[in-house]
Please model this.
Amino acid sequence: MSVFPIVIIVFILNFTISPMESYLIYRFLLGALFIIIGLSIFLFGADIGITPIGSLMGHSIAKSNRLWVIGVAGIILGFLISIAEPDLHILANQVNSATGGVISKNIIVLIVSLGIAVMIAIGLYRIVYNKPLHKLLTIIYGVIFVFAIFTSPEFLAISFDASGATTGAMTVPFILALGLGISSLKIGKVSEEDSFGLVAIASSGAILSVLIMSLFNKNNELSNSIETNILETTSIVDPFIRKFPTIIFEVFMALLPLLVLFFIFNYISFKLSQKKLKKILKGLAYTFIGLVLFLLGVNAGFMDVGYIVGYSLGSLNSQWVIILIAFILGLVVILAEPAVYVLTEQIEDVTSGYIKRKIVMFALSIGVAVAVSLSIIRIIIPGIQLWHYLLPGYIIAIIMTYLVPKLFVGIAFDSGGVASGPMSATFILAFAQGAARATEGADVIIDGFGIIAMIALTPLIALQVLGLLFKIKSGKGGNTNGK
Amino acid sequence: MENNIEFNEFELCCVIVDCGMGSKILKTAKSFGVSGGTILLGKGTIKNPLLEILDLNDIRKEIVLMISEKSIAYKSLEEVSKKYKFEKPNRGIAFSTPIANLLGTSSCKYKENHESRGVNNIMYNAIFVIVERGKAEAVIDTAELAGSRGGTIINARGSGIHERATLFSMVIEPEKEIVLIISEKDKTDDIVLTINKSLDIEKPGNGIMFVIDLNKTYGLY
Model:
């Protein structure tokens, strides 16, 4: 279901504009198969493994009824989860090479994890203290923009990319469930509105910490040491076998803190029955297997194809074609993002089906499609810089938070972190890099950065527009109790 | 007494189907004259040894509650079960139960001290109040003033005849809360009338309330 549209589009491109070697196509198909199987196993796992752990932890933290417990637990949970996130280590490598090695990789990982941890603690306090999300977001993004003024464009791109990258497929379901677990202790409308927004606050922690790091960096030149590695092999299964060990290791590392925390919490507070314990552990095992298969499919099967499609489209003289294709790829890529399903399911649960999965998916698709095509336009036209998009984009997004129903504010800002998952970080990024390589005057590295930042931005606006439509259509002012 | 429009007999229809089907069921039922309904989410299990070993036997369900006059209820339930092939396994289940009292739709009036049919001496009633999301706490507070011991809030969504907004051809079903209150029979009237007074349930769009006779209760004291 989820990857069929992408497969169809790639096939059409293969027979028309950008013919590919047959081994690439076979590899792509194998990758698609892995993604389909992996995605469905992962979703089962998230449903019975990660989500219950998150909401149980949220419950027991909130029930402790002591403020320091909430703060400490928020910081510890946030820190352990983000430090294990594989995407953060990739990001740290990027920052490390971008700064010419001034800041060591381990320190970057530590600082960003700390940033996310602090923001998660703040996000938890917000839920407990009933502080409105839109005001907190205004403050956070205000601070971010003050920092951004003093930052070089390259670093700006990296930091906003960080917001999407660090909230990976494993952490998003957990943080979502954590917020739900705490807010579900409240009654009625407030509970529902506060169920969302924690992912948004957490990912702003990543932006902030990278921006702060850049202030200590005197070297504003990006050193071009990042390599795009296309495997020079014609074997179909070889890349799968080669990537298998690293992916297994990464997923295991991401899962480990959850597992350890779960056992600690279970010992102290949940004390689950044997049957429930077994079920959650099985869920974690499914998550592990599913995510490994999924990432294997994306990394080994999809990345090269994305790069080549981007390259051959970029070599065409017609610029409209690549912008159009970029739009279409953006439309369909969201259907294969694992965390999107977790978010939409949670939205249905919290609102009892008032906001349906299909309609959220629809808005997300449009948002990501616009993001990808805007990024391609930025690659083609050298004059446009990333902040030309980000600044007005975030200003619009923040202004809208004051107009749309509060429930949609949380959902929209969470979906930014959700949409920029593994699929866009690999397939779409490779596509953009391919296009950049084929375009004269475009820098593969500088223009490659920032695309995840765009995918994290546009859903904020798309979903808030959806919220406005709901508000207008239902004619009840959304949250004003129908008076 | 049965001929009087004010004392029509009403039935509560309950349909349990897979997640995503609820809105379709409601739409079909509406086309046979049911005026509205409320949908809540539930979890069901699948009976399958293999899936049970793998712990994959949970499935999301939707429960559709619809109230209508007896003949309409029977007719629409039959049509719904025919259309969605409930006679085949795993398609869904449907049942209906008589309602003792109903408030909040235009065609009914509250019957005080209503006599229950059947031989059993009914000791308790279940009062269901369906209101807009956010009002449930007020309902429980009012009910407690009238002598109820508390209530249970269930989140739901639903649509009546007054709400027909659509977005991209999808019907928007506003969010609701269902309050379930179990009360002793002699207190039921008090509770129902107090809630009615404070929430103006009889005015259109303010929610509906119905009462079901309970044959057996446990855990109440």
In short: Chain B is about 25% helix and 35% strand. The first strand of chain B starts at residue 10 and ends at 18. Confidence is low (pLDDT under 50) at residues 1-6 of chain B.
